[in-house]
Amino acid sequence: MWLIMNPGLLTESVLPLPEGPTTIGRTEENSLCVLHASLSRRHARVERQGEQVVLFDRTA
């Protein structure tokens, strides 16, 4: 399974999505660090569970 960032744009990135949790945010403590002002330090968590993917909002 893959995580596609910015699909269709010149900045498109395709990253493997491992089994279990992947954290996304602005700080380097995250599995995926994205240095963009629109993201919080601890923005989201993606959990791959077999063929299912669940997205958790960590900003609330």
From TrEMBL:
<dbReference type="Pfam" id="PF00498">
    <property type="entry name" value="FHA"/>
</dbReference>
<protein>
    <submittedName>
        <fullName>Pkn9 associate protein 1, putative</fullName>
    </submittedName>
</protein>
<dbReference type="InterPro" id="IPR000253">
    <property type="entry name" value="FHA_dom"/>
</dbReference>
<dbReference type="InterPro" id="IPR008984">
    <property type="entry name" value="SMAD_FHA_dom_sf"/>
</dbReference>
<feature type="domain" description="FHA">
    <location>
        <begin position="22"/>
        <end position="57"/>
    </location>
</feature>
